[in-house]
Amino acid sequence: DIQMTQSPSSVSASVGDRVTITCRASQSVITWLAWYQQSPGKPPKLLIYSASTLHTGVPSRFSASGSGTDFSLTISSLQPEDSATYYCQQANTFPYTFGQGTRLEI
Amino acid sequence: EVHLVESGGGQVKPGESLRLSCAGSGFDFNLYTMNWVRQAPGKGLEWVSSISSNSNYIYYADSVKSRFTISRDNARNSMYLQMDSLRAEDTAVYFCVKDVVRGVIGSFGSWGQGIPVTVSS
User: Fold this and answer.
1) Considering only CB atoms, which chain A residues are within 8 Å of B47?
2) B61 near A CB under 8 A
3) On the CB side of A60, how many CA atoms lie within 13 Å of its CA?
4) What pLDDT digit, counting tens, does each position of B43-80 carry?
């Protein structure tokens, strides 16, 4: 199975800050990589797919890049509503696997 | 607007069975791969199973293989997860999930609200 490792596990930042979360795959997933945001008690929301494609309706302060094994998600100007847990997920090979999550506190 | 509604969850004892259902609306259900993803209490996300649009391709996580069976009925815009020989470690919220777009399989664009399953003696 492909292991997905996110860092950091948690981060605290202020409104207006720029934050980057990284995700590393144990083997290449090409660009079959998605990012999700989950608030407590809610289902996850897709932010990014195919490593860098912004999902419909997602604010442009979210961006992502990467290919192969190394990926990153950047939030350019943090807003209070960005407080959530963020997950990366590889969709290159079954079984699909998620990172352990990064808790972002604003 | 895409709408996914899960049903059929509840509390059962180890070794018992449950059947989850997912009703989809607001999109061409018969054209999309559908998936189940679960989340144990306080834990991260775990992919469980996927079924292609015509049911030709089915995949399972090792943790549920041979115990869970995914299926779909495109005429009813519904997907199912038959869960047998349930274990305590199957306790989780189960999400019905739709791929984001056709051709981008495995990126989960729409999620149901989730249905809790508790396995406890």
Assistant:
1) 89, 95-98
2) yes
3) 0
4) 999 999 999 999 999 999 999 999 999 999 999 999 99
